[in-house]
């Protein structure tokens, strides 16, 4: 998995503490990204030790990793609710609002987070900010990319089609769509921007997660800072 932000030790501390919250019998949302990967590995070790859970992966990458470490899986279309979801974030503010989608998985991640009784964010200190201040990824239907880009500009944003690093052309999501990374500067009112983006035809999902996270585990150099 692609590594971003803080140190692996910080990410691992946060993720392993969050994995300890999972109990036998639970359905667990498995987020995507380099921080969540540590939680998936920790859950795999716990399953080896007898923990009885089923994981709901939010991406192709998480499904592969979870399968490799032996977590029994259910696919998203099979589950009506999730007991606990563990996932990373690209930005995290003081109210636990998030920007997600650095790995283009935010559409499925949001479905799982919203279906979860408890949504736990795992992060390192580089993700924490006073105000959300990073570009917001939008998953868009391919045919809608130009009209959505125009709508984003009308909302005061600067959209850029996300391009693939190892192939010519754009990033294509696990759902077959494109990603527009939209720079809005510092986002003073995430709920209002989220509502505007959700109301834009052609936007499959945006990466603003407002009011979804129950708690955040932020790994530091010597422990874990728990925020609620
Ligand atoms: O689409 C990807 C996700 O939203 C990730 O959870 C997010 O980008 C954080 O990833 P990482 O833990 O690698 O920084």
UniProtKB/TrEMBL annotation:
Bias-annotated ranges (Basic and acidic residues): 8-19
Pathway stated in the Swiss-Prot or TrEMBL entry: Carbohydrate degradation; pentose phosphate pathway; D-ribose 5-phosphate from D-ribulose 5-phosphate (non-oxidative stage): step 1/1
Gene3D superfamilies from the UniProt entry: 3.30.70.260, 3.40.50.1360
Region (Disordered): 1-20
One Gene Ontology CC term in the entry: cytosol
Active site: 109 (proton acceptor)
Entry-linked InterPro entries: NagB/RpiA_transferase-like (IPR037171), Ribose5P_isomerase_typA_subgr (IPR020672), Ribose5P_isomerase_type_A (IPR004788)
Keyword line: Isomerase
Record-level GO BP terms: D-ribose metabolic process; pentose-phosphate shunt, non-oxidative branch
Residues the record lists as binding substrate: 32-35, 87-90, 100-103, 127
GO molecular function, one term: ribose-5-phosphate isomerase activity
EC number: 5.3.1.6
Entry annotated with the keyword Signal: no
One Pfam family, short name: Rib_5-P_isom_A
Catalyzed reactions: aldehydo-D-ribose 5-phosphate = D-ribulose 5-phosphate
Protein function: Catalyzes the reversible conversion of ribose-5-phosphate to ribulose 5-phosphate.
Similarity remark: Belongs to the ribose 5-phosphate isomerase family.
PANTHER family for this protein: RIBOSE-5-PHOSPHATE ISOMERASE (PTHR11934:SF0)
Assembly behavior: Homodimer.
Protein name: Ribose-5-phosphate isomerase A
Organism: Halogeometricum limi
Gene: rpiA
């Amino acid at each position: 998995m692609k590594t971003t932000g803080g140190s692996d030790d910080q990410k691992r501390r946060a993720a392993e503490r969050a994995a300890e919250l999972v109990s036998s019998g639970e359905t667990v949302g498995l987020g995507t990204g380099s921080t969540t990967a540590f939680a998936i590995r920790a859950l795999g070790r716990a399953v080896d030790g007898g923990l009885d859970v089923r994981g709901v992966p939010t991406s192709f990458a998480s499904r592969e990793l979870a399968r490799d470490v032996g977590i029994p899986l259910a696919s998203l279309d099979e589950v009506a609710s999730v007991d606990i979801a563990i996932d990373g974030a690209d930005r995290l503010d003081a109210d636990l609002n998030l920007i997600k989608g650095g790995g283009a998985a935010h559409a499925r991640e949001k479905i799982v987070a919203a279906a979860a009784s408890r949504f736990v964010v795992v992060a390192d200190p580089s993700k924490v900010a006073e105000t959300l201040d990073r570009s917001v990824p939008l998953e868009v239907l391919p045919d809608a990319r130009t009209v959505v880009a125009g709508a984003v500009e009308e909302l005061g944003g600067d959209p850029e089609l996300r391009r693939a690093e190892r192939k010519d052309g754009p990033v294509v999501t696990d759902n077959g769509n494109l990603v527009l990374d939209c720079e809005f500067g510092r986002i003073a009112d995430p709920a209002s921007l989220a509502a505007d983006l959700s109301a834009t035809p052609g936007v499959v999902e945006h990466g603003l997660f407002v009011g979804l996270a129950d708690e955040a585990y932020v790994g530091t150099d010597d422990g874990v800072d728990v925020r609620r």
